[in-house]
Here is the input.
Amino acid sequence: MKILAIGGSPRGSKSQTHVLVEALLAEAKGKGAEVEFVDLGKAQIGFCRACEACHRGPHCALHNDDGGGILERMLEADGIVLASPVYLDQVTAQMKTLLDRTSHFVHCLRMTGKYFAAVTTSGGGGGEATTAFLKRYAVTVGAQFAGNVDARVPLGDANFAAARALGAALVAAIAEKKLWPDQVHAIDEQLQRFGHIIAFRKDHWPFEYQYWHEKGWL
Ligand SMILES: Cc1cc2nc3c(=O)[nH]c(=O)nc-3n(C[C@H](O)[C@H](O)[C@H](O)COP(=O)(O)O)c2cc1C
Here is the structure.
């Protein structure tokens, strides 16, 4: 079982979000998972240019930056932790830039069968909107959302305990193939909606149309 955590803080080793993620990953590793951490603050990731190359073929037009490799690692992982400080009630620009590069994952629900979790930290304790965005993103790409930690800095023991508990819950959800009925329903709705769009756009998005065909979804 592989768990990939993606940290969106620009503050590297000073990041309180990343410190919490380390606790989560240590717990997951103790439960037998293979874990990896990607620090977006150190990655070179260009903005999505809306060129639609990823809908027409397997590669982003910017695939020579770090974004393509991170997306590949997401495809290989069983569990993905999206971790971000709250900036203006949203994820950081680093995290949003990566997620904007995953439009193909949305169209083809490429994270189907995977499990997501979210870790957010904030100065004022207002991570609800950011967490809701990350949960919505997970379901939009076809994944089950196993839970989150939303902590206010300075971090305390309870925050680290919650991060460790989330690590254990994520491993358990992956092992049990746990399903949340409301999320299954939301993913079904997403499949219906994109089924129409992919069929309508089949000449413009041949790569994605082919993917849907191979999946037997069309
Ligand atoms: C540009 C910027 C915007 C921020 N916006 C918010 C905010 O909207 N709400 C909040 O509670 N904290 C906000 N903060 C504080 C950070 O969320 C908080 O310090 C966070 O724990 C930093 O995480 P890190 O240590 O992982 O970088 C902001 C900080 C910065 C630098």
User: Anything to note?
Assistant: The chain has a mean pLDDT of 97.
